């Protein structure tokens, strides 16, 4: 299997011409609402395992690359009231180039006869709306797709072998079938594509860097899963 890595919430950049719309944003851009702290660091750590790696550095508060066209959260409270012409500009300049580029590379690889594992790297806040998230790692997948289920079960097993103290949960803190980039790509590629969202608790993140041991544990676990997948073919 060939590993593709993406990170839809890697950064919190706002292009200069849109900065005026965030004049009252305060510090929200620096929080989990503006980006996924530690996700880019983890992506870079895992990238030696991948044949393709891509990150999206624009803040999700400008336009959300992990939501489908027409989704109510595609635009945030800072951009939802923009004129339609400007919304189209955001789609044309930021959203579509990223999504189309990743989709195109996957399509090219599948057309070459390759089996693709796409891991979309994310992190989640330890507490949301007063609720503590009781997991260290979440693996989001579509239970109907057996290849995804098998991959995630083996990934969880390997994480446990690396560090039995880590609590890994399936389809937590979100459902794997909720709207997202991998959900869209599953529809686009019904065969030869395994789409997983990897979610890691931000309690392991300091100054946008993820704890080194955790990164190493995930790296080693993923490496073993990929090797076993190749050997089993």
Shape call: globular
Outline the low-pLDDT stretches.
none
Task: Report the total helices.
Answer: 5
Averaging pLDDT over every residue, what do you get? 96
- Please tally the β strands and state the result: 10
Helix content: 25-40%
Largest sheet: 6 strands, mixed
- Report the radius of gyration as a whole number of Å: 17 Å
Distance between the termini: 9 Å
Helical/strand content category: alpha/beta
Order of helices and strands: EHEHEEEEHEHEEEH
Relative strand content: 15-25%
**Within the largest sheet, what's the order of strands?**
2-1-3-8-6-7
Would you write up a description of this structure?
It is a single chain. With 233 residues, this protein is an alpha/beta fold. The chain has 5 helices and 10 strands; from the N terminus they run βαβαββββαβαβββα. The chain has a 6-stranded mixed beta sheet, sandwiched between helices. A two-stranded antiparallel ribbon has the order 4-5. A two-stranded antiparallel ribbon has the order 9-10. α3 (146-162) packs across α5.
